[in-house]
């Protein structure tokens, strides 16, 4: 899905790592949310309470998921799952455009 219809977008951005990672919340009528954002090159760690589906729309990164010592290469068009109540690490090598879906 390349567009979302009938949604509410929160104007204020979520800003992390001195502006190197930003996102905006998109809320749906069913109560679900997603964030759309950009990550500039750098190394990052994020924590999440809910499970997430991270869709990489464009760019390149590697991710180290909880419980793994291996780094996985992710490119535009790929996605990965993050379990609830966990932390994950990212190494962004080229500007990343992403969509994060929060799962119940």
Number of separate strands: 9
CATH topology: Jelly Rolls
Helix content: under 10%
How many domains in all?
A: 1
**Sheet bearing the most strands, described?**
9 strands, antiparallel
First-last Cα distance: 20 Å
Strand composition percent? over 45%
| Oligomeric state | single chain
Radius of gyration: 13 Å
Q: Give the uncertain stretches in residue-range form.
A: none
Class by SSE composition: mainly beta
Family: Belongs to the nucleoside phosphorylase PpnP family.
Catalytic activity: adenosine + phosphate = alpha-D-ribose 1-phosphate + adenine; cytidine + phosphate = cytosine + alpha-D-ribose 1-phosphate; thymidine + phosphate = 2-deoxy-alpha-D-ribose 1-phosphate + thymine; uridine + phosphate = alpha-D-ribose 1-phosphate + uracil
InterPro entries: Ppnp (IPR009664), RmlC-like_jellyroll (IPR014710), RmlC_Cupin_sf (IPR011051)
Protein name: Pyrimidine/purine nucleoside phosphorylase
In short:
The chain is mainly β and 104 residues long.
Describe the structure.
With 104 residues, the protein is mainly β. The chain has a single domain, classed as Sandwich (Jelly Rolls). 0% of the residues lie in helices and 63% in strands. Strands 1, 2, 3, 4, 5, 6, 7, 8 and 9 form a 9-stranded antiparallel sheet that branches.
């Amino acid at each position: 899905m390349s567009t979302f219809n009938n949604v509410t977008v929160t104007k204020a951005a979520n800003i992390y790592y001195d502006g190197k990672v930003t996102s905006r919340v998109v809320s749906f009528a069913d109560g679900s949310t997603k964030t759309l954002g950009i990550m500039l090159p750098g190394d990052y760690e994020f924590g999440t309470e809910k499970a997430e589906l991270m869709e990489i729309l464009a760019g390149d990164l590697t991710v180290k998921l909880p419980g793994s010592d291996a780094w996985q290469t992710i490119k535009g068009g790929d996605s990965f799952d993050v379990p609830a109540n966990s932390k994950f690490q990212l190494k962004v090598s080229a500007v990343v455009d992403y969509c994060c879906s929060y799962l119940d």
